[in-house]
Specification:
about 350 residues; alpha+beta; Ribosomal Protein S5, domain 2; 7-stranded mixed β-sheet; 4-stranded antiparallel β-sheet; 9 helices; 13 strands; globular; binds adenosine-5'-diphosphate; binds (3R)-3-hydroxy-3-methyl-5-(phosphonooxy)pentanoic acid; binds magnesium ion; cytoplasm; EC 2.7.1.36
């Protein structure tokens, strides 16, 4: 039995625009998906996903065709859920040159689903790592990140960047621009997350931006402007001392860029009333800046605040179901049981 866990992430800046080749800076946070992989005698894959609905469910299938789950879960949820685990298993089989390998897989996660914290990437990264290790063919981190990206790319119909999967694999803050992915030295930023209890459909939201961008030059310009602000943000991070707590002036400047980034994402149609409400609650509470994180449509916002004011204000904000401090996960994917 092999167990691996991989972190979720917040976007400091650059989601959506990163899909079109602009740079983005996500940072891994200490909320993890844990995947257990146990090789089987046959070629079946049995998946237990405890967190996918109130009751969780178990599904067993061979060669990618899902049987009925054990409990009553709507089929689209099962299909949506199985997509990522299925793609991770396929990548592991391919990497280990074991096309008929079967597994018992268990997924547990404290990353809210579809909320912009990269639960899909964490499940795929931990899944491929656990399954390849279970077959005695561990991958180095770069290859693991690459295979995890390919899995997300497939499930999201060719609409995925390398940002989430690279960040979850490496941990810490990273910079992604097209195929170019590098860890960056960043100071420990005081992230506060607000979660509206809901989710957005990543594929649909990405497709919406794609259409807007194709239709209007000003939407394409908006995407480019996001790239410009990411470059400005990177410059600020590069000048900061990663060993020290960030200076108030740095937080103020990063916060201003986050506010700007949220405005541009809202212009691209991916915010939501609940996300805007949480962003404003954070700003009113004195956060340096706040923005939605991830695909949007519902889910999470991220704010910068070293005091407790934002977390407290969010916890009293109508529409915010959970507010928490998100510590930087300096370690990416890791082995819990070899
Ligand atoms: N605990 C889990 N168990 C199984 N699958 C999961 C789990 N968490 C996330 N997933 C998969 O990831 C999908 C959500 O990914 P996505 O829509 O990209 O949102 P995000 O990555 O922002 O959380 C879920 O529909 C499911 O397929
Ligand atoms: C919108 C996007 O930039 C980020 C999606 O993040 P999440 O899956 O919502 O956590 C898509 C991508 O980069 O693949
Ligand atoms: Mg995702």
């Amino acid at each position: 039995m092999t167990v691996c866990e991989a972190p979720g992430k917040v976007y400091l800046f650059g989601e959506h625009a990163v899909v079109y080749g602009e740079p983005a800076v996500p940072a891994a946070v200490e909320r993890r998906a844990t995947v257990t992989a146990e090789p089987r005698e046959d070629d079946h894959v049995r998946v237990e996903a405890e967190d996918l609905s109130l009751d969780g469910f178990t599904v067993e299938y061979a060669g990618g065709t899902s049987d009925r789950p054990d409990v009553d879960v709507p089929t689209p949820l099962v299909e949506a859920a199985m997509g990522y685990v299925d793609a991770a298993v396929e990548q592991a089989r391919d990497a280990a040159d074991a096309p008929d390998a079967g597994f018992d897989i268990t997924v547990e996660s404290d990353i809210p689903l579809g909320a912009g914290l990269g639960s899909s990437a964490a499940v795929v990264v931990a899944g491929i790592d656990a399954a390849t290790r279970a077959l005695g063919e561990p991958l180095d981190r770069r290859e693991l990140a690459d295979r995890a990206y390919r899995a997300e790319y497939e499930v999201q119909d060719g609409q995925a960047s390398r940002a989430d999967t690279f960040c979850s694999t490496m941990g810490g803050a990273v910079r992604v621009e097209g195929d170019d992915c590098e860890p960056i030295d960043a100071p420990n930023l005081p992230f506060v997350v607000g979660f509206d209890g809901g989710a957005g459909d990543t594929g649909e939201l990405v497709a919406g931006v794609r259409e807007l961008r194709a239709e209007h030059e000003f939407a394409a310009d908006t995407v480019e402007s996001i790239g410009d602000l990411v470059r400005a943000g990177e410059g600020l991070l590069a000048d900061a001392n990663p060993e020290r707590d960030p200076e108030p002036a740095l937080l103020a400047e990063l916060g201003e860029l986050m506010d700007f980034n949220h405005g541009l994402l809202a212009a691209l149609g991916v915010s939501a009333r609940s996300l805007d409400a949480m962003v404003w609650a954070a700003r009113d509470a004195g956060a340096h800046g706040a923005k939605l994180t991830g695909a949007g449509g519902g889910g999470c916002i991220v704010a910068l605040d070293e005091s407790d004011a934002t977390e407290t204000a969010l916890s009293f904000t109508q529409g915010c179901e959970e507010a928490f401090r998100a510590e930087l996960a300096t370690e990416g994917v890791r082995v819990v049981e070899p």
